[in-house]
Amino acid sequence: MSLRVAGLCRHDHRGRMLITNQWDGGQPPRFYLARTREGNVWRVRADVPDAVARALSTLAADEPPLRDPAERPLHEARYVDLLCTGRSAARTESGPVYWFASAVVPAAQPVTIDAANAHLLHGGLEDWLPDVPHRRPMVAMVEDGRAVSVCASVRITEQTHEAGVETLAACRGRGHAVNAVAGWAQQVRQRGVDKIFYSTSWSNRASQGVADRLGLAMLGTDFSVD
Q: Is the pLDDT of residue 86 over 90?
């Protein structure tokens, strides 16, 4: 988990989060906690006041190792309280984190997306067009001349890749996401990377179903406050 967390954001000399680790940047959450059965890893955004950051870290250090993935963090309410100072609300997100403990094989092979065939993303997945040169590898399941499901590396380091996946609403439930993610993972392994991750939210049952169908191992859980 430590390798994955290191790849989620770029950090300052204190280990505080500066910017999301993706080609177009993005602001990370103010507080992030990853929990596993072996222990926990946490990060605080660089602009959080030092006193608040110290209090958050003290609480995170007191979190017990993960026992039940559905169990909320012990100090969840305190994290939120500390970060609500001067703000009307703080938004939390949480969900499971999986990793590819073994190789997976798609039942149907996706198409590799590059500049030559990026037009396949038109028809519903255009938001991925700016990502084509940066989020490599990128693959898609194609029907009737257009991509209906796309998967790409959205967090990349020398040692790790993490998946991002989207399927057109009208084409869900037909195995497209499973095949896209499996084909993407194959290409990542071909690049010599074997620390491959997939994460989602607890509310996204369909995404959890993709992980289940692929037989992914649950590594731990994410929790963040923004």
A: no
Q: Do strands 111-112 and 92-99 pair parallel, antiparallel, or not at all (unpaired)?
A: unpaired
Q: Are 122 and 198 in contact (CB under 8 A)?
A: no
> Looking at residue 197, what is its pLDDT?
98
Helix (H) or strand (E) holding 126: none
Task: List, in order of start, the domains of the chain with CATH numbers.
Answer: 2-98 (no CATH), 111-193 (3.40.630.30)
Taking the model in full, what pTM does it have?
0.94
The CB-side HSE value for 53 (13 A sphere, CA atoms) comes to: 14
Distance separating alpha carbons of residues 216 and 98, to the nearest angstrom = 6
Cα–Cα distance between 44 and 52 in angstroms, integer?
9
- Percent of the chain whose pLDDT exceeds 70: 98
For residue 88, name the pLDDT band (cuts at 50, 70, 90).
Answer: low
d(CA 139, CA 145): 14
Residue carrying the six token digits 């500390």: 82
**Do 164 and 132 form a contact (C-beta atoms < 8 A)?**
no
Angle of helix 76-83 versus helix 50-61 axis, rounded to 10: 180
| pLDDT for 133 beyond 70 | yes
Strands 160-167 and 195-199: parallel
Distance CA 54, CA 96 (A): 26
